[in-house]
Write a structure and sequence with these properties.
alpha+beta, Alpha-Beta Plaits, four-stranded antiparallel sheet, 4 helices, GYD/TTHA1554
């Protein structure tokens, strides 16, 4: 399952990065994700809302994604973290087919 994690570096993390500007945060992310049985797909630095990161990764166990996210927060590396499950086009096609089957079973408010 693919996930997208976004967040901003904490002031503590930014100070550590400035003290060692050659630090490789991508390798740190790769190591954590691989330890969870996953694969780092891509990682980008972003400037929105302060210096931050956008990481796309694939993990076989969906419970690994919030564990990865939580570790980055509790370690003091990231703040304002958002974690999203990404769906392939084949997966979303199945979701749409399931929704079409279930449509008749749902009564919206006011009906």
């Amino acid at each position: 399952m693919h996930f997208c994690l976004t967040g901003q570096y904490t002031p503590r993390a930014l100070n550590a990065i400035l003290e060692n500007p050659a630090t490789n945060r991508q390798e740190a992310a790769r190591k954590l994700i691989e330890a969870a049985g996953g694969k780092l797909v891509s990682m980008y630095s972003v400037a929105t809302d302060g210096p931050g990161v956008l990481v796309i990764f694939d993990v076989p166990d969906p419970s690994a994604a919030p564990a990865i996210s939580g570790l980055t927060v509790t370690a003091g590396t990231l703040q304002n973290v958002k974690l999203m499950r990404l769906f392939t086009q084949d997966e979303i096609k199945q979701v749409r087919q399931n929704a079409a089957k279930l449509r008749a079973s749902y009564s919206p408010p006011g009906s």
